[in-house]
Structure formats: structure tokens, C-alpha cells
Amino acid sequence: xxxxxxxxxxxxxxxxxxxxxxxxxxxxxxxxxxxxxxxxxxxxxxxxxxxxxxxxxxxxxxxxxxxxxxxxxxxxxxxxxxxxxxxxxxxxxxxxxxxxxxxxxxxxxxxxxxxxxxxxxxxxxxxxxxxxxxxxxxxxxxxxxxxxxxxxxxxxxxxxxxxxxxxxxxxxxxxxxxxxx
Length: 181
Known about the structure:
Layout: H1 7-25, E1 26-32, E2 38-43, H2 46-49, H3 52-61, H4 63-69, E3 73-77, H5 80-92, E4 96-99, E5 114-115, E6 123-131, H6 135-146, E7 150-158, E8 165-169
Parallel strand pairs: 3-4, 3-6, 6-7, 7-8
Antiparallel strand pairs: 1-2, 4-5
């Protein structure tokens, strides 16, 4: 029997993730994605994250990555990455930080991109939900590296256009519009 953290042992869980995305989170149509790419489907990750059992199961898929990278902090990108980072932080007991898209404009830490305590030299596992071009999460990584943090980036889903590690690569063939989700 394979080690529970091995890629072979994870195949049923990754099949489940693909299936749950198709069943709950896919909407067909014509969409402009954040990276400027056009697509005939959209992955609405909030249809997954709103179900606590699904969110918990997705967070558990990151256990082998956490074990391999041994981070000091779990980081999440605004907005979807924060949700998954929170779940992974809760599951592992590793503190988390949030990386904003734009600096905060108010409060004690105005003009800062990063929320939460950290120290230079710490290792961050930066989590993202769905990446297409990876532009935003790579900008978040650069912000953390400017603060002298070591960063590994991981996403739940890569649509195959970004140089980002992910749990699964996901694409669908072009098809007729499906609007019943």
C-alpha cells in the first residue's frame, strides 16, 4: 500500500476534486478571465468554498505540500486564496498571513500589502485558488520576497497557462453554453 502522502495515493482525491469542480463550479458561456484570456467556461470556486465539507477536504489535499515545504507561515492571496489559506492554517496549526491586491488605505498599517505577523527569513507557502496567467499570485510572491520572505506558490487549480504548481491542471473542451449552474 502506498504512503498516504504519495502522488499515487492522492489520485482518488484528485479525481474527486475534478469531479466536484465539474459538478458544482463550472458555468459555460463566454468569459473574460483575470489574465485577459477569453474562455467558454468559468470556475466559480465560491460554489466549492461555501460548503464546509468540500472546503475541509480541499484543505486536506494540501497536507503533503505542507509536509514537503515545511513553511513557517501559510499565505493567502486576496480573496479566494485567503479562504483556502485560512482552512489550511486551521488544519495544520501554522499561522497565516494575507497578501492584498492593493495596499490597505486605512488603520494602523495603511499602505501595506501584507496583513499578519511575519519576520524576514521566514518561509511562506502562498496559496491561490484558480490561476490562469498567474499574474496576480506572482505579484504577491514578489511583494513577499521584497520583505525578505522565502516563498513557495501553490494553487488548487491551474488552467495550464501559468508557471505555478497546483493540485490539478484543469481544462474543458469547447462546448455549448451551459447556464443551469
